[in-house]
Amino acid sequence: MPRIPHLGDELWHLHMDFATLIGKRMMPSGNWLGTADDGTAGAQPRLFLTFDDGPCPKTTPYLLEVLAEEQVQATFFIIGAHAERHGDLVQQVAAAGHTVGSHGYSHRPFPLMSTKDMESDLARANETLRSITGQAPRFFRPPYGVLDERGARCLSEQEMKTVYWGVVTEDWLPIGAKRVVARVERKLSNNALIVLHEKWFPKQTIAATKEVIKIGKQAGYQFAALGVT
Predict the structure, then answer these.
(1) Where are the alpha helices (DSSP H) in 2-161?
(2) Confidence of residue 5 (pLDDT cuts 50, 70, 90)
(3) CATH number reported for the structural domain that contains residue 93 in this entry
(4) Which end of the chain is more exposed for a tag (fewer CB within 10 A), N or C?
(5) Phi and psi at residue 227, in whole multiples of 5°?
């Protein structure tokens, strides 16, 4: 029997399509699709799993187990303040070969910050991650997905790339893993950036990740991490 679309999901997809359209027109340029620096673009279609708001003791270790079992690489956009509290988890993410990106230090929306505070927030997050992993992050996902030209200039000065979103599921709400997966499945396409969140509902995120990997592989996709060579 075919799956009957959930009305809330239909409205959500319309909302996200509109938000993406506006974002691409109004915000500074950045990555709306994933890329891997391995010279194999155009080979097997790829998906990019990305996890925001970590690290989280209730989520990160279990995600790493799932990713290791499935031999999948992913990208973790980490909040600097969380990294200070859970540096061991950041080390584990990096040691497993996943890409560590910045999600800012305080997770405050950049357009609402002064330029000085914006620069300080970005620099503090970068230094925190560099001190833990030995490398400064190359990729930045703006908190709440919003960025202005001042933020873009700050990132350019740090030689960082802005990464926006592709498939967003609203998994910061307790909608259940099945609906998270259904929202991802509907938007699967080559080089899609799949956005999941660590902090809010760990069991939902872990279960959804397992199923997204399964569905992606069955559909012929491979999974990649940003910037992996």
Answers:
(1) 7-26, 60-70, 80-85, 87-95, 115-133, 149-157
(2) very low
(3) 3.20.20.370
(4) N
(5) 75, 5
The span from the CA of 28 to the CA of 36, in Å, is: 21
For the chain, the average pLDDT equals: 92
Q: Does residue 145 fall inside a structural domain?
A: yes
Q: With respect to residue 62, please indicate whether it lies within any of the assigned structural domains.
A: yes
Strand-pair partners of 161: 139
Residue 28, in any domain of the structure? no
| Beta-carbon contacts of residue 152 (< 8 Å; ≥ 6 apart) | 28, 29, 30, 162
Could you report the per-residue pLDDT of 82-103, keeping only the tens digit for each?
A: 999 999 999 999 999 999 999 9
Among 26, 45, 59, smallest CA distance to 171 is for 59
The whole domain housing 149 covers 15-23+46-221
Please count the structural domains in the chain. 1
pLDDT at 68 > cutoff 70: yes
Name the token pair of 39. Answer: 């010279």
What's the pLDDT tens digit per position in 141-197? 999 999 999 999 999 999 999 999 999 998 999 999 999 999 999 999 999 999 999
Whether 37 is in a domain gets the answer no
CA 24 to each of CA 99, 166, 188, 189: distance values in angstroms, whole numbers, following the listed order: 24, 11, 19, 18
